[in-house]
Amino acid sequence: MSNENIPMTQTTESPQMENVTRMDKDGYFEAVMARGKALKRRIFSALGIVCAVVGLLMANRIVVVCGLLVTLLALFSHLLIGYRDFQKLKVVHPTGEWEKTTRFFEDYMEVDTGDGQPKRRAYKDIRREYETEHMYVVEFGKEVSAMTFRKDGFTKGSFEEFQAYLTDKQRQYYDVTASS
User: Fold this and answer.
1) What is the pLDDT of residues 149-170, one digit of tens each?
2) CA distances (Å), 171 to each of 77, 165, 177, 179, in order?
């Protein structure tokens, strides 16, 4: 069930934890920046090797200019995409602010942005996590790239409890003790 929606059935299950986040431009871009940093190491490593080899072989200014252009895109593309996506969100939320509730259940998390269509994702589908000063980002993949929430937004449970809970869930799905 990789990155597919978990069926939206009525449930009487009570969430283990709940987080209410008031998203705004600052929080949104803090999350975007966190995700952008993770890609830089791989991009710069590959780019540095390719540019060095090609530059040495060809000694061509065009290669240098293209290398610089690609480097700039690698550095700032997540910001450009984030800006574009934020503008799309402003169509739905004209003030540039919105509230969303993230609920953490036994096997999945659910985010409700108030559009009447909550999104559910299984913990087993988590690919990466990023933490910033105020935000926490859980990345799933391409269909629903990430769920973000403020670390201080917990109305049921706490951020520290969430971290312990998520670590426990990850141990259930992946045998992390076997590699120790």
Assistant:
1) 999 999 999 999 999 999 888 8
2) 34, 10, 8, 12
